[in-house]
């Protein structure tokens, strides 16, 4: 049932079409392994970016510890929303990329919220991210999927659950599909691809 719901989400938000080449943006080395394994399982590719695009992405990334290959590793969780926007916008310049996936680990903002003495929902810039990502889609025509990754669901993490719920609502209201897990997001796109590939063969 969960997989069916995720597939329905992808069908509802993604324009009709086949998305064979994707880019993935997020933090951490494990991201690349998960993304590449899932893409291969569901008939997609995560191609290396064109050299000129890759250099422009590298120039945007904070240093050190980041990587401009695809998947793009932004390293830390506190990259400014406008930098994430510029990275996404730059990657759309590669004609091979059909769709982008942005993996956000917003629960890390709990530490920043404590430092600022603010509620977590106020300290997390999810509204700004939603606005920027939506603008990229409108300007380029290439869809963006958001993954709100979190394993924080304990009693002490109710503020995180609340913030992620609000963030999900904000992204969805701007036409950006949201998933809890990168593998599940790629799997849902795979179902979309399978459906429209069959349609193309029968036309």
The averaged pLDDT comes out at 93
Shape: globular
Low-confidence stretches: none
Largest sheet: 5 strands, parallel
What Rg, in angstroms, do the CA atoms define? 17 Å
Distance between the termini: 30 Å
Biggest sheet strand line-up? 2-1-3-4-5
- What is the count of DSSP helices, taking H or I runs of 4+ residues? 9
Looking at the chains present, what oligomeric state does this protein adopt? single chain
Share of residues in helices: 40-55%
Derived from helix and strand composition plus strand pairing, the structural class reads: alpha/beta
Strand content: 5-15%
Number of strands: 5
Instruction: Give the topology string: H per helix, E per strand.
Output: HEHHEHEHHHEHEH
Give an overview in words.
The chain has 203 residues and is α/β, with parallel strands linked by helices. It contains nine helices and five strands, in the order H-E-H-H-E-H-E-H-H-H-E-H-E-H. Strands 2-1-3-4-5 form a five-stranded parallel beta sheet, sandwiched between helices. Helix 2 runs parallel beside helix 9, helix 3 runs antiparallel to helix 4 and helix 4 runs parallel beside helix 7. The longest helix is centred in the last third of the chain and has 21 residues. The radius of gyration is 17 Å and the shape is globular.
